[in-house]
Amino acid sequence: MKKVSAIILRIVMLMMFGFPVFAVSPFSLPITTIIIDPGHGGNDPGALSANALQLEEKSVVLDLSQRIKYELSVLIPQATVLMTREDDRFISLEDRARIARTADPGVDGSSILVSIHANGSQYEEASGFEILMKHEQKQVVFFPDDIQDWQLVRYSGMSTSTLNKALNLENRQLARALQERIASQFPDSRNRGIKEQDVWVLNASAIPSVLIEIGFITNSAESEQMTDSVWLDLMARSIAEGIILYSNR
Ligand SMILES: [Zn+2]
User: Fold this and answer.
1) How close is the Cα of 115 to the center of ligand 1, in Å?
2) What is the CA(64)–ligand 1 centre distance, in A?
3) Domains plus CATH for the chain?
4) What's the gap in Å between 69 CA and the centre of ligand 1?
5) Please, what are the averages of pLDDT over each run of 10 residues along the chain (249 residues)?
6) CB proximity list for 211: less than 8 A, separation 6 or greater
7) pTM metric for this prediction
8) Is residue 224 helix, strand or coil?
9) How far is C-alpha 161 from the geometric centre of its chain's CA atoms?
10) What's the 44 CA to ligand 1 centre distance in angstroms?
11) What is the whole-number distance in angstroms between the Cα of residue 17 and the centre of ligand 1?
């Protein structure tokens, strides 16, 4: 039923406005909704530290995400900040993407997803932060069966390929803004760059989205930092500042 009404609305919009209905990117509106996605949780601990700290990625990223939420409430109080989980519980990748995809940013706003992770490696010396975005050639589905009315209005009249191009541009701008802020606040941390990767949540969220690997939990020095609240506060502020930098694009 949803699909049929989606098709009918698209036809009506085409008859009324011609093609394309919206020439501007549907992602160019001010950021009104920010979804912070702490990775893992519940029976999925994520990566584990190799040292006596016995740190679990799921706990580090939840702690950091709560600090990011706080920083955003100070820096951009008018925005809604959602978290895919607020405590230690398992959330499926499908549910994470659904939360991002269906959160209504309002007619005058747009939304982004920032997924927070800590890296792991079998090599103790592996270190540094990196930012992942979806492969640019990966085509996102913008008209799923459970499409929301606001998405329908926003995406109507635009081809999937045009929408994907617009999304890729936003992903890269968001990744660059985050990289710039983290690199400048942590000049001693190795900047591993922006990488295109096949990450399920990034492919399925259908909004500008990136995944930040804040450092290696398997590296002794970096896992120590992940227990330091001064370090965590600075990382949270850098990420919040990156989001603000992107939203001022
Ligand atoms: Zn992870």
Assistant:
1) 9
2) 13
3) 2-247 (3.40.630.40)
4) 19
5) 55 50 75 98 96 94 98 97 98 96 91 98 97 96 86 88 94 98 98 97 96 98 97 98 95
6) 39, 114, 115, 116, 117, 131, 132, 133, 197, 199, 201, 202
7) 0.90
8) helix
9) 21
10) 10
11) 45
